[in-house]
Amino acid sequence: MKTGNEFACPIPISQYSQILMAHGGGGKLTHQLIENMFIAAFDNPPLKARHDGAALDMPSSKLAFTTDSYVVQPLFFPGGDIGTLAVNGTVNDLAMCGARPLYLSAGFIIEEGFSMDMLWRVVQSMAQAADEAGIQIVTGDTKVVERGKGDGLFINTAGIGALETGQALSAESIKAGDAVLLSGDIGRHGISIMAVREGLAFESTITSDCAPLSDIVLSLLGSGVGVHCLRDLTRGGLATALVEIAEAGEKHIEIEEARIPVTGEVQGACEILGFDPLYIANEGRFVGFVPASKAENALEQMQAHPLGKQASIIGTVKDDHAGLVTVRSRIGACRVADRISGEQLPRIC
Amino acid sequence: MKTGNEFACPIPISQYSQILMAHGGGGKLTHQLIENMFIAAFDNPPLKARHDGAALDMPSSKLAFTTDSYVVQPLFFPGGDIGTLAVNGTVNDLAMCGARPLYLSAGFIIEEGFSMDMLWRVVQSMAQAADEAGIQIVTGDTKVVERGKGDGLFINTAGIGALETGQALSAESIKAGDAVLLSGDIGRHGISIMAVREGLAFESTITSDCAPLSDIVLSLLGSGVGVHCLRDLTRGGLATALVEIAEAGEKHIEIEEARIPVTGEVQGACEILGFDPLYIANEGRFVGFVPASKAENALEQMQAHPLGKQASIIGTVKDDHAGLVTVRSRIGACRVADRISGEQLPRIC
Predict the structure, then answer these.
(1) Picking from A60-69, A219-228, B193-202, which range would have the lowest pLDDT averaged per residue?
(2) Residues B4-27, mean pLDDT to the nearest whole number
(3) Nearest-CA distance from B82 to chain A in Å?
């Protein structure tokens, strides 16, 4: 993927150990940063053309296009860093459209004084995550803001994917009777960030679930189970994703709490911190809506993939109470899940 | 383009006059901001699908893809604001690839406490600029960072354009004998920002040249003059753009200072501030390289467009001294233009 030593920062520490305003000025230092840091790490032909935009082949007449900015704090956490997140988060948004990830852009907003070595670590994480997800980082941009006008590093990525199947995935496509499948345990990303931020120690380290979902999604879509809708469970967690789908699809979604996998550590942390795991952000989990007749087939498909081993059928779609999400608890009580109105966990992605 | 009153902020000032952390949390307030602010202003079918990614038609098998983050200070300046810039800057990068602009993403990083009304003004500017450039804002993202961890508002845009001609535009394609055409006067954007920032008053207000270049570029490309390379003159200005082209194309570019249009106000401001107009950023100017035999034809094409009235042939490409840019002054002296090593004007885009 790259030449030379992957682990040594290519801009000599003795020369510039920190980002200067001039690294964003468009002159010599910007040129050095682009050549020695970004082009060195993300090495691919469109990027090497060093044009302001990349000229790319498009293998399908339909594409998916998405963007996210990443402002996570801390920048490094168990299971990943802002770079891993910036690639996987956007790859996952493409996957939820049913698209095969192709091309990624990367925009860096760096605070003056940010460690050159940390930037290199993040860039390495991005290159590795892009490699794993099979996406190329083909174009980018770097801006530097004065000390105190940023927070170390913000990254924006935008992604392009190829829409090759005719399946229209949308909340509007869900139907009464559909089974709701969840790909794995929830709550790990948000709690892992929170634990680092608050200096909380649990018996074992809670690791973010950050992962690229395109492979598991494309194999599910290719298996002919007739998926109606897919959604990843980022900001706002499982509950918010389901509320959005129930409202847009004008259906009632009923889920059973006992069927939702949550690790003991996450459950414990949530109890201590006063959080509900249903609302905690994930970065490698999704829900899929499939016809009831294909639910078991879809579940097998998901469980056959390393990222879906803990997949389960957590609920069903109903025609009554359009727009509502209800959660049946372990003791049979039923409550309505709503959007959170305030801020539960800021800056987790 | 939109329904209702374009000038009143759609989120009642009495309710939330400022951005709260919760506007970035993925809950109710994020939902309200997306619905009432972004979808209201950027109104188009892919965006209205309210999916994490937009599903789009791609009319060509080759596309151009580009991104830029915008961190300009102040956010509002004569001739535009960060919103105008965020649309035109990315549209222009697509134009420089020879692409017809199609789709734009918009990522907002907002500092807690930012004025809701200012955000609405910026969003209106983006909608208007997108309309003028014929590009649709089809997908987006909003993040909020704590007070003191940002600087009001940063915007990232990424753009997709259709590459319909077979013309390969690149610095490597320039040839000895090519004429260098400049589309208009230089230095206005950078100096207009600097004047506001430093509270400088000139006889008349210096207005940014910020404008979408796709129309003038597509008509130039369509006129059959055989363009070899195009480059817009943003960070680092005309000189830096030419140095990059000369180095990548391994040619000598010689320009004549007397042929480069600079207004008296910009010239005066540069003399007072100690800047060289050749290095000042522009947001609506570009250079084109065409065969000498087509130079006059190309010049006529450019001058026929409202954004190219002041276009001129400013120099030629030579085979000697590969990688050098030389500037012949009004009195016949010749100097080498190099990249600037430091930071001339920070945060002008």
Answers:
(1) B193-202
(2) 76
(3) 14
Least confident range from A14-23, A127-136, B73-82, B280-289: namely: A14-23
pTM of the model: 0.95
Average pLDDT, chain B: 92
Yes or no: say if B337 and B242 are a contact pair by the CB < 8 Å rule. yes
The conformation of residue B294, written as its DSSP 8-state character, comes to G
Which residue on chain B is closest to A108 by alpha carbon? Answer: B69
- CB-hemisphere CA count at 13 Å for B27? 18
Give how far A231 is from chain B: nearest CA, Å: 8
Contact B141 A68 (CB under 8 A): yes
Whether A310 and A211 have beta carbons less than 8 Å apart is answered as no
Query: Across the interface, do B343 and A60 touch by the CB < 8 Å criterion?
Result: no
Helices (H), chain A: 28-33, 40-42, 45-48, 82-96, 116-133, 188-198, 214-222, 237-249, 264-273, 295-303
pLDDT value, residue A121: 96
- Banded pLDDT at B6 (limits 50, 70, 90): low
Which residues have CB under 8 Å from A16's CB, separation 6+?
A23, A29, A116
Instruction: Give mean pLDDT, residues A228-249.
Output: 95
State mean pLDDT over B122-147.
Answer: 97
**CA A227/CA A289 separation, integer angstroms:** 6
Instruction: Give A7-28 pLDDT, tens digit per residue.
Output: 677 776 558 899 999 999 888 8
Q: Which of A135, A43, A140, A122 is nearest to A88 (CA)?
A: A135
Helix (H, G, I), strand (E, B) or coil at B59: coil
Judged by a CB distance cut-off of 8 A, whether residue A275 touches chain B is no
DSSP state of B105: E
Contact B241, B283 (CB under 8 A): no
Q: Six-digit token pair at A315?
A: 């609920």
- What's the confidence (pLDDT) of residue B13? 53
> Which residues in chain A are contacts of B240 at CB distance < 8 A?
26-27
pLDDT value, residue A6: 52
CA–CA dist B126, B42 (Å, integer): 8
Three-state SS at B123: helix
Let me know the angle formed at the C-alpha of A60 by A59 and A66, rounded to the nearest 5 degrees: 100
CA distance A32 to A205: 38
A22 vs B149: CB contact, 8 Å cut-off? no
Closest CA relative to residue B123, chosen from B211, B39, B45, B55:
B39
Q: What local confidence, expressed as pLDDT, does residue A14 receive?
A: 55
Radius of gyration of chain A from its Cα atoms, rounded to whole angstroms: 21
Alpha carbon distance B169, B98 (integer Å): 7
Task: For residue B218, give the H/E element and its range.
Answer: helix B214-222
ipTM field: 0.94
The 8-class DSSP code of residue B36 comes to: I
Average pLDDT over every residue of B68-94: 97
* B62-70 β-sheet, strand order: A54-57, B62-70, B153-162, B100-111, B136-145
Say if A341 is an interface residue toward chain B (CB within 8 Å).
yes
Q: What is the arrangement of strands in the sheet containing A136-145, beginning at the earlier edge strand?
A: A136-145, A100-111, A153-162, A62-70, B54-57
For strands A76-77 and B312-318, give the pairing.
Answer: unpaired
pLDDT for B200 equals 81
Asked if residue A133 lies in contact with residue A91, where contact means CB atoms within 8 angstroms, the answer is yes
C-beta of residue A109 within 8 angstroms of C-beta of residue A150: yes
For residue A259, the number of C-alpha atoms closer than 13 Å in the C-beta half-sphere is 17
Q: Which amino acid is at B21?
A: M
Length of chain B: 349
Across the range B42-60, mean pLDDT stands at: 87
Nearest residue to A261 via CA among A308, A305, A227, A219: A308
